[in-house]
Specification:
The structure holds 2 protein chains of 2 kinds.
Chain A lengths: L1 H29 L30 H22 L4 E2 L1 H10 L9 E6 H11 L2 E6 L6 E8 L17 E5 L5 E7 L9 E3 L5 E3 H4 L3 E5 L2 E5 L3 H9 L8 E2 L2 E4 L4 E4 L12 H5 L4 H17 L1
Chain B lengths: L1 H34 L2 H20 L16 H4 L5 E3 L21 E4 L6 H10 L8 E4 L10 H10 L3 E2 L3 H38 L12 H17 L24 H12 L2 H8 L4 E7 L3 E5 L15 H6 L2 E2 L6 E2 L5 E2 H11 L7 E5 L8 E2 L3 E3 L9 E7 L4 E7 L7
Parallel strand pairs in B: 1-5, 2-3, 3-4, 6-10, 10-12
Antiparallel strand pairs in B: 2-13, 5-6, 7-8, 7-9, 11-12, 13-14
Helix pairs in contact in B: 6-8
The chains are: A alpha+beta, B alpha/beta.
InterPro entries (chain A): FKTN/MNN4/W02B3.4-1, LicD/FKTN/FKRP_NTP_transf
Membrane topology (chain A): Single-pass membrane protein
Subcellular location (chain A): Membrane
Chain lengths: 295, 411
């Protein structure tokens, strides 16, 4: 009996200590964001979509959309001019799929580059500022290309530096997220991943297709539809009412309407489904491995 | 003695139980803490409400014809030609007269040749192809994989064949256009450099007033063309990575997979005429009132029933195999419902009421020769030692003719 009690106490003590360790580890992991390079004024929409350095105020619907359109155009024009290979991704690609434009409820834009391009971008263009004038000459903006010093790390790591670079509108703080994809697993040649567990087959990305986005020449992955279905499930290609907008089959635009719920009632599909489902399974396996390793 | 023993032993047991419960709780906590740390946990809690609300917002009704992303003009935005009509005098049908009698004036559709030139020649001989009166249609993927893509291309061009764009033509043509684009940029650069040099030498002559040699655009064009054609045959130029263009240094294109390499190689071999011919192939070749088949659409991979032709997903026409069971979204995977199954089921519902549409296609080698009432799947896997199949449509009847193929690809 004594032995049993002793044994149980040891087990309990051990568990409590471990649990406390895990708790403190998690605490460390979550709150201070010591390693995070890009800083935003908030963690949820809309403030998470501004760069802290340039954030002044939350823009209204029209200004934000206007800013995003010029962000997209300027990025595409600059990369074409400088011969930087880039293609549109995630929610931005989904917007292209519907009508070749930005999804009007989106807060940021996503583009991808290869990891090699990313490194060269870091060497050649980091912290460079670019001036932009719209085609009609009415809008003048300045953009900053900021490359995350953590680009050497090609796996998720602590998860705070999954965005490799940013194309920031210095006037408002809104930005384009730039992520690089690279081969990180030697046993899986031809499989590329970004730092947020998105996996791509090389043959699904290249050869890139030429198209227009926001009426500017742009590139998209070869297998864009399969990529979208994998990332967002088929629903993203089917739903015609979303975030206060309804798809107008006549004009082929997403119209802002009052009778479709927006905001907290229907959380943004783009932000939520951006994390693919693979996270869960690989997370569990990886963490079980960690558990065994710990022991 | 027995009496006081009980109260002392009882608390020990319950304390042990308490301990074990505590241990169990902390173990669960520990295991949970390790299994779902930080990001994943947050991510899960974010996903759950979405799954719930989305079910309300989008429930795909399997009986409702679905216009996914209705009319996105995808083909236009991808620079692809969606549909072309076969000239009426080439379509066999009732009441039409053909040169050379009743049995002539056929339409012969051949799927997925994949560069198997000899097989194509013997198949054409077997169906007694008459270039004068018969109209040949290639249902896509005539090139790539096999040994003689360019010979196949030249033969069908010679016969004035109709064609649709397959996924392989699509890939090769994208490579081709990008190579052309690169060449153009290179030329422009060269020109700029030469101009600079020229300006310099002019300056060094202390502006003597001698006008620079007249620029002869015709001559220049000829030279460019020679240059380009030479490059086409130059084996040292076969891979982009070997280009010495300093600008391409920024884009070390990771062309590393076998497919990308072989596709690029083939794209480099295409002549301008061959590429132009291929590029003119639409996604859908349409024949109205074809004998007793009704309207016939020749495509490479498939079509989704209930969606207007102009609303079909341009890329899926070249790639689909099955449909998502809920929303009928096309995918190239084979784990859904075969699109042809839906097509036949829906067409049969309206039997006897108006004209039907028959789809002739290739692409689905895994399903093999697949002749159904309203769909005709012709890819019988020639390049991997199967057969090369033709669907022959004459004014009175249709037949399937095929020849055996060499076992060229083994994987």
């Amino acid at each position: 009996m004594r032995f049993q009690v002793l044994f149980l106490s040891v087990v309990t003590l051990g568990s409590v200590v471990s649990a406390a360790a895990v708790k403190s580890y998690r605490h460390e992991d979550e709150s201070p964001m010591d390693t995070k390079y890009f800083q935003e004024p908030g963690t949820g929409a809309p403030t998470a979509h501004y760069d802290s350095r340039f954030f002044k105020e939350i823009q209204n619907y029209d200004d934000r959309l206007d800013t995003l359109k010029h962000l997209a155009k300027s990025w595409l024009q600059m990369t074409a001019k400088e011969n930087i290979e880039t293609w549109i991704a995630h929610g931005t690609l989904l917007g292209w799929w519907w009508n070749g434009d930005i999804l009007p409820w989106d807060w940021d834009l996503d583009v991808q580059v290869s990891a090699d391009t990313l490194n060269l971008m870091g060497e050649k263009y980091n912290m460079s500022r670019h001036h932009y004038t719209s085609d009609d000459g009415t809008v003048k903006r300045e953009y900053l290309l900021d490359v995350n010093p953590w680009i050497w790390e090609r796996v998720r790591g602590d998860g705070f530096n999954v965005i490799d670079a940013r194309w920031v509108d210095v006037q408002s703080g809104l930005y384009v997220d730039i992520t690089g994809i690279a081969e990180t697993n030697p046993s899986q040649p031809g499989i590329l991943n970004c730092k947020n567990y998105h996996l791509y087959k090389m043959d699904d990305i290249w050869p890139l297709r030429d198209t227009l986005f926001e009426d500017v020449p742009a590139k998209i992955p070869y297998n864009f539809d399969e990529i979208l279905m994998k990332e967002y499930q088929t629903k993203a290609l089917v739903v015609t009412e979303y975030e206060g907008h309804r798809w107008n089959t006549q004009s082929k635009t997403w119209d802002r309407v009052g009778d479709v719920p927006a905001g907290k009632g229907s959380k943004s599909l783009m932000n939520n489904v951006r994390e693919p489902w693979t996270v869960e399974s690989s997370g569990i396996f990886y963490n079980t491995f960690r558990l065994l390793h710990w022991w | 003695m027995a009496k006081p023993a009980l109260p002392t032993s009882r608390p020990v047991v319950s304390r042990a139980r308490l301990w074990s419960i505590l241990a169990a709780i902390s173990t669960i906590f520990l295991v949970y803490g390790i299994l779902y740390p930080g990001g994943c946990r947050i991510h899960r809690s974010e996903l759950e409400p979405v799954a719930a609300t989305d079910l309300e917002v989008w429930s795909c009704h399997p009986h409702r014809p679905l216009n996914f992303g209705a009319d996105k003009q995808l083909s236009e935005r991808l620079g692809l030609k969606l549909v072309e009509d076969v000239p009426a005098d080439k379509i066999p049908g009732d009441g039409r007269k053909f040169k050379g009698g009743e049995d002539h004036g056929r339409v012969i559709v051949i799927g997925d040749v994949h560069g198997m030139f000899h097989e194509l020649v013997s198949l054409l001989a077997k169906v007694k192809f008459n270039a004068e009166s018969d109209y040949l249609i290639l249902a896509g993927d005539m090139i790539s994989k096999g040994p003689d893509s360019l010979k196949v291309l030249d033969l069908v061009r010679h016969h004035g064949a109709g064609c649709v764009r397959g996924n392989h033509e699509d890939r090769i043509l994208i490579h081709y256009h990008q190579l052309q684009e690169k060449k153009k940029k290179k030329e422009e650069k060269k020109e700029k450099k030469e101009k600079k040099k020229h300006d310099k030498s002019r300056n060094s002559r202390h502006k003597t007033g001698i006008s620079p040699r007249d620029y002869n655009p015709d001559l220049k064009d000829d030279m460019e063309m020679d240059d380009m054609e030479m490059e086409d045959d130059d084996p040292s130029q076969q891979f982009i990575s070997k280009d010495n263009d300093p600008d391409s240094e920024l884009n070390p294109s990771p062309f590393e997979t076998d497919q990308l390499r072989t596709d690029q190689k083939l794209a480099r071999k295409l002549t301008r005429k061959q590429a132009a011919w291929l590029n003119a192939c639409p996604l859908v070749l349409r024949m109205n009132k074809t004998s007793d088949l009704g309207q016939v659409n020749v495509v490479h991979a498939g079509l989704v029933h209930g969606v207007r032709l102009e609303d079909q997903d341009a890329k899926a026409i070249m790639n689909m195999r099955t449909l998502d069971r809920h929303c009928h979204l096309p995918t190239s995977r084979s784990d859904g419902q075969h699109w042809a199954k839906l097509w036949n089921r829906e067409e049969k519902k309206t039997e006897g009421k108006g004209e039907h549409t028959t789809v002739i296609y290739g692409h689905y080698a895994a399903a093999g020769l697949d002749i159904r009432r309203y769909t005709k799947g012709l890819d019988s896997n020639c390049v991997r030692g199967g057969r090369l199949t033709a669907y022959v449509i004459s004014s009175k009847h249709q037949e399937v003719v095929s020849v055996k193929c060499r076992h060229y690809l083994r994987d």
